[in-house]
Structures are given as C-alpha cells and as structure tokens.
Amino acid sequence: MSSTARSRTGRHAAITRLIEQGDIASQEQLRAALAAAGIATTQATLSRDLVDLGATKVRTANGRSVYRLPDADAPTPEVPVDSQLARRAADLLATADTVLNQVILRTPPGAAQLLAAALDRHVLPGVLGCVAGDDTVLIVCRGQAEAEETHSLLLRLAGRSA
C-alpha cells in the first residue's frame, strides 16, 4: 500500500473517530483536532475527505450545526430523493439533454463540480458514473432507457417538467 493510501486511510479513520466522539462544528475545528493528533492536512484535503466519508452537517437539539457520518447499518434507498441533490439541481441545473446512454447537464460556469459531487453521493439506478468540467456534467448510464429516467428525475428534482 502506498504512503498516500496509508495516510488517507489513517486520516479517514481519525476523522471518523473525532466526529463520532465529539461535536465537530467546523472544518477548522476538525483540522485543529487532527493536528493535535499529529495529522497535518490542508482545508482542501479535509473537505474532500468529508465528502468521501459522506459527512453532513446536522442541527443538534441545542441548535448547533455539527458534522455527522451516515449510519453504516442503515439501508441505502435505491433512488434517494435527497434535499441536497434537489437543492443543487434546482440551483445549478441550467439545461439537461440526453444522447443515447448519456445525460448532459449544463450549469453556470464553475458549478458543474458541485452538481456532480451531489450526484456522486447518491445511488441512481442505471448510472455508471459522471464526469464534470467547468460548466458541464456528463452522466454515463447503462442504456438509453436509464439515461431518459435519470434525465426525468433530475428535471423533477430541479422543479421542471420532463
């Protein structure tokens, strides 16, 4: 195993432990806790790690926003209608088209990666993967029918008719 993989794995384990042990409210607080544990990281790397781990911010009973990790034992719905994906689609989706087994999404400049990241965090049936540029997201599906279903779902989430 490479040193990069070991350090990433170790960082993920430490992040998981810190989030599960306490009320981590910000990336800076998490970065400081990691530094105290002897793990130096940048904010950009930490942000990617949180996405990789599926960490989200939730509001506690006292009104504080803190990071939480998904429940590993919870079943993953086949088609999650997640508010973050719906929000991203509503805010960022400019146009959507299908070509054979592909869905092409257009966003404002610089926003494609945000939409693609929201898509990557969800299990969409028939989707093999997606790639983002600056203002375009390419979604590759198993077939044309799956591409059309994905297209319709994204338009519905964005609040537009298919």
From TrEMBL:
It comes from the Bacteria. GO terms for cellular component: cytoplasm. Residues 8-73 form the Arginine repressor DNA-binding domain. One of its GO terms (biological process) is L-arginine biosynthetic process. InterPro entries: Arg_repress, Arg_repress_C, Arg_repress_C_sf, Arg_repress_DNA-bd, WH-like_DNA-bd_sf, WH_DNA-bd_sf. GO terms for molecular function: arginine binding; DNA binding; DNA-binding transcription factor activity. Pathway: Amino-acid biosynthesis; L-arginine biosynthesis [regulation]. Gene3D superfamilies: 3.30.1360.40, Winged helix-like DNA-binding domain superfamily/Winged helix DNA-binding domain (1.10.10.10). Keywords: Amino-acid biosynthesis, Arginine biosynthesis, Cytoplasm, DNA-binding, Repressor, Transcription, Transcription regulation. Residues 91-153 form the Arginine repressor C-terminal domain. It is found in: Cytoplasm. Regulates arginine biosynthesis genes. Belongs to the ArgR family. This is Arginine repressor. The gene is argR.
